[in-house]
Structures
1.
Amino acid sequence: MRYVLKKFYVYVWKDLDDGNIFYVGKGCGKRYKSLRNRNKYFMEYVSSHNVNSEIVAYFDTEDEAFEYEESLMKHYKDMGQCKCSLM
């Protein structure tokens, strides 16, 4: 059986000490673990906390990934998390 991976995904960065999500993003390839081209709040957080990233959902199109990214970011912001994602 052949599996085809979907190209686009949504990922989160999590604080491993308290479990809070501090960033939600969308990407493809290895973006979910890259530290390149991040905002200053993200970089400051990563440099001072125990963190990890993980992919949470895959999508066929970038538009689908973007819509899910926005809704997930809003969900975490409503909970007082996701402080490093800029809307």
2.
Amino acid sequence: MTPSFMFRLVVSVRRGSACNLPGAADRYATLDLARAAGAVLLRHERVSRIVIVRNEAPPAFVQWLER
């Protein structure tokens, strides 16, 4: 049985793209794991804010993370 990855991050950056930032494109099994990954991403100088959403169609908003 494969694990269910329920959450993902939508990363807003000041310039460029977030696709090359580690953890930006990953899926997370728990909200705590998503929050921890978001906290690490917020340390990057280009990241301005992050939205945690449920990994479903359409994505459902869960929480904002900002500096």
